[in-house]
Every structure is written in C-alpha cells, then in structure tokens.
Amino acid sequence: MDRKLNRKKPKRKTSILSYWTLQYFLILCIGFSIIVAGALYWIRTTSLEKGLKTAELLGLEIAEKVSVSGNRLYIPPDLDRLVDKRTKLFNTDNHFCIMILDNNNQLIYSKPKMTQQDVYSRLSDDLLEPRNNKFAGVTVNVVDANQTLGKVWVMQSKKAITYSSDTLLIVGLLFAALILCGWFTIYLLSRKLSKPIRQVAHAAEQIRTGNYEVNLDLNTREQEMNELVNSFREMSLRLQQLEEWRTISLAGVTHELKTPVTSIKGLVMAVRDDIVSPQEGKEFLDIALKESERMERMVADLLDYNAMSAGSVAVRQERIDLNLLVGEIIYQWKIAYEDKSPEVALHAPGGSFYTIGDALRIQQIIVNLLNNGLQATASGQRAAFELRLRAEEQFLFVDVLDNGTGIAEEDRSKIFERFYRGEIKKRLSRGLGLGLTYSRLLAQAQGGDLTLTSSSPQGSLFTLKLPRWKAPDAPSLEKAYRSPVNA
Q: What distance in Å separates the CA atoms of residue 59 and residue 390, rounded to the nearest whole number?
C-alpha cells in the first residue's frame, strides 16, 4: 500500500524589517480605519443634530415674520430678502427648500419657487415627514392666540448637513498623515532593531563556518540589545579560546599517550632482537610494564573525566564520619608509598565530623591531592603533609598542605582547567592534566568545592569543602559510613 507523504511547503522567508513593517502597517491601516469610521459617524450625528437645530431656529424666525389676519396667513414682502440672508449660513444644495403651508396644507410660500405637486412629492402622504429618508426637515407651527394657523417646513439633504467637501478632505488628509507617520516610525524602529540582529546573525554564520574572529562593534541604547551583543561577543571569544585550547590539548594528549607507547615499543623490540642481555632484558620489561601502567592510568583518567562530564558517574549520598574516613585514607595511602616514607600529620578537633557525600569519591580527591604533593616534592627531600579538619555552620573543610615546590603564579588560575599542565609539572611527571579537574567535579557533585588556597616555593595548600550533615527531623533510610575504603 503506497503511502503518500504530505510535505509541507517551506514558508517563504522574509527579513525582520519587511515582515514587521508590513505587519504593523496593516495593523495601523485597520486601526485607523476603525477610528476614522467612528469619527465620521460621530461627525455625521453631531452635524445632523446641529443642522436641524439651526434649521429650527430659521423656521421660528420665519414663523414670527408671517402675519395673521382673520385666520389667514400673509407673507411679508421682505421675507425673500430675510431667507436669502439666512441661507448663507447653511451648506445648501439643490435640495434645500423652505415651505409655508396653511392648516389645509396648501402652499402659501416657498423658496425656491415650488408648486403644490412639488410639496406632495417631497413630503409623505400624511405631510408629516420627508418622503425620502435621504432628506431631513423640521417644522415650526405658525401660532396666533394659541391657535395654530399653519406651519413652516425647512428641508435639506442629510449629505449637505453632515459632510462637506472640506470636512472629507481634512479627514482624508489626517488619515493619510497618521498612516504615513505611523508607518515611518515603525520603519525606523524596525530598522534600528533589525540592524544589530542582522549583524549578530552574520557573525553566527561566520562562527558556523569556523571563523571565530568576528567583529561586533555595536553600542545601542536598548539594554536588551546591548546584552545580546555583549553576550554573543563574549561567546565568540570563548569559542575561539576553546578552539585554540582544543587544538593545544589534543596535541598534548596525543604526545603524552604517544610517549609511553614509543618507549614500550622500543624496549620490547630490544628484548625481542636480543640486543640486550637476559638480565637487562628483564629490566627492560619491567620498565615497559611501568610505562604501560602509566599509560593505563592516563587512559583511566580520561575515561573518568568523560564519564563525569557526561553525568554518568554515580555519586552516593551517605552520612560519613569525615574524621574517621580521612584517617583511614592516610593510613592506606602511606602503605601504598611505604618505599618513599612520606610523613602525614592529621589535625582534627575531638569528636565526630559528619558530612553527607560519597566516601569513595572523597577518597579519590584526597588521594589525588596527596599524589600531586608527592610529585611536587623536590628531589632528595622527604615528602611531608599536614591535613587539618575544621567545621563551619554549613560546611566541613579538609585542608591539605604539602611541602612541594609550589605552583607558579601564572599557572595558579589555570590548574583546574582540563588538560592543563604547568611547565614544571610537564618536566617532572607525565599525565593528561585531568586530576584536579576531575577532583573538583567530584567535590561539586557532592555539593562542595575544591580550591587552591595558597601556594609558595615552600608548598601548596588545597581546601576541600563538603556539606555538613544535619540530623533529619524524622527517621529516614540513612546510610552511614562505617567500613574502611579500599586503597
């Protein structure tokens, strides 16, 4: 059965300047159109109301001019002049008219001249309102002695009352001006906003192609844009540094792993080809074995670090008597290096110091610090260490002080970086430079930290910080450190 895959067509991409300018322009047009429609409706209603009131005033004035004699209406001779004078105040057109009717609805006076038939065509059948709803009119009764003798009709088209050509022109110009001003403002804002984004996007494209030397010389007033540009600039610098560091580190790791391999190969080939005596061959094999063990440790360090970085190293949370644990670590470590007879002194206040963590990981950290101090001991000098335990409110501290040659000042800020090894340490021992990095990661995984407190030609002081254990409010499934750790 064939399956047809419906592939969505990719949306057409457009620049942020064009997109937002067009979007906001449409929004402006719709918004201002609604506003203009409301304004025109309000103008129409207001103008119609005012026009009818003005027409009513004109009807009242005409009704007062009409004279009455014997229940009959008489038109004064100067009424035409009065009407011509007053109609100048109106926006008149061909539909404007004034009619005076008696009680029998007979036409007595009209302006312009009209016939009785025209009256019937303009008014409804009952002569009470305009026949066409496009016209508006008012009536004023001609009264004498509280008796209605006739009425005055003032009629005009609603269009003439509500909208004049000047009004429509002004509204149209205002509408166009507002639209243009709004569009121009949005265009400037969108352009100002899109400029740094375009430059950041261009810089990101350069970084994607491997060029980390990007130039982002932007300084805008918007705080968010400045933060974006500064963060991206720092990110590019950091990526450049990481790329350089990766190249150097890869070369260093390759060299450190290649050296023991080359040594092992040369020693084994010498034994195989019978270049050396049987006694020397045995010594060569012992050297090759040590080189292979050193390479094994370097590979193990690399694997441990990668596992820790990937978060696949389990760190247990147990209650541990730190005083007891550190004592056992020192005892086992001294046995392992009995041939070098190191001196290790532990200074701890009386009582128990309980921390929450992983005993095996704490052992790895302390053993690594002791090994580093042993390697840093000057030739012909006996290694000596002092370990001090101290406590604060929230944390416990283990200070490890050695009597080595110290760390160069320019190397102190970098000793916890991956694969970093100072020049002095490179000459003294082989390694990948992951020991302190891995130890700090282990300390941080337990809620603590590992720092270099001080260093001098007389020795270095490292401080391991661990969280202090607090008694729970209720019984819990708590594991306590009781058994000694393995060396």
A: 107
Tokens 């004279």 belong to 67
CA distance 214 to 463: 40
Task: Read off the pLDDT of residues 319-357 as tens digits, 9 standing for 90 and up.
Answer: 988 888 998 888 888 887 877 888 889 988 877 788 988
> Helices 435-445 and 278-309 meet at what angle, rounded to 10?
40
- Tell me phi and psi for residue 202, to 5 degrees: -65, -40
**Residue 430 identity (one-letter amino acid):** R
Strands (E), 126-180: 135-144, 147-157
**Distance between CA atoms of 191 and 214, rounded to whole angstroms?**
22
Is it true that the peptide bond before 112 is cis, omega within 30 degrees of 0?
yes
* pLDDT value of position 10: 58
Give the Cα separation of 191 and 197 in Å (integer): 10
Do strands 449-456 and 384-391 pair parallel, antiparallel, or not at all (unpaired)?
A: unpaired
Q: Residue 265 is inside which H or E element, if any?
A: helix 223-272
Whole-angstrom Cα distance, residue 21 to residue 328? 72
Question: 263 and 291 in contact (C-beta within 8 Å)?
Answer: yes
CA distance 263 to 268: 9
The long-range contacts involving 423-427, CB below 8 angstroms and separated by at least 24 positions, are 425/375, 425/376
Distance CA 459, CA 284 (A): 35
The residue type of 379 is S
- Cα distances from 208 to residues 171, 214, 290, in angstroms, run 53, 11, 44
Beta strands in 242-383 (DSSP E): 318-321, 343-347, 354-357
pLDDT in tens, 139-168: 888 888 778 888 888 888 887 777 666 777
* DSSP β-ladder status, 147-157 and 449-456: unpaired
Whether residue 376 contacts residue 405, with contact meaning beta carbons closer than 8 Å, is answered with yes
Contact 362, 466 (CB under 8 A): yes
Contact predicate 126/46, CB 8 Å: no
